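Collaborator request, handled under Task 6.
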Amino acid sequence: MRRQIPAHFFNFLKICHYQTVFMVYSAEIRWFFNNLTEVNALEKWFNSRNLFFAGNWDRADIYLWQPGLEKLGIKIREGKVEVKVLLADKGEWPLAAENSGLANDWVKYSFGLQESDEENKKLLQQFSSATLKTENDLWVRVDKERLLQKYAINLAEKHIQPIAPDAWPEEGCGVELTKVKINEQTYYTFGLEAFSKSHQESGNLRFVLNMLLPEIPGQNLKAQQSYSYPSFLNKLYTDKGRSD
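Structure tokens returned to the collaborator:
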């Protein structure tokens, strides 16, 4: 039986409705792994770009954790609410070097929480705890350490250019390898998130995948390991229910 989402969540969404700070469309593909040995080739690729895991959990996202939320991701991060809505399931993509994965189109909305508001302040304090405890486990904390390489894309010249992580060119794609901790269990996820000012998100994603995957020999990416964050959390929720 689906548990009721707490009323205060909708209260602060109403408050933030008029404070939208960011909206972005994206095409994404992602895989999850149970241990570091499964992503050795990927880690070496990031290391060759001077990106290394340092052993620090440098960010934490608090996700709404409810059954059936495969098409919707809701999280709190650094005083913001982020709502991610699935626009299209692109299905399985066969990729270069005999890889495959499940691609999706998304739109993300970010809402700022005003710390000066007393209700919002209490919420932010609640979700900043290193050991999140909420009634009925409605939320789950996901600690992350991320390696990110972002690219600007020039489709006309069939070229990609490495750029700073905080840069936002008109056409681009982020490529990440992230260590995540969920309920004291560690996983690894490799993902690409493409964006476009000219509505070519899916084309940008395919282009970068085809450019980069041949550079990573020995990595075996399969559709059976391919999930979005919402669908992976839904899988963990289902598995948790079976073990309870």
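The cover message to the collaborator said: "Confidence is low (pLDDT under 50) at residues 1-6, 130-135. The beta strands are 20-33, 59-64, 72-77, 80-95, 99-112, 139-154, 159-163, 171-182, 185-196. Please let us know whether this matches your experimental observations."
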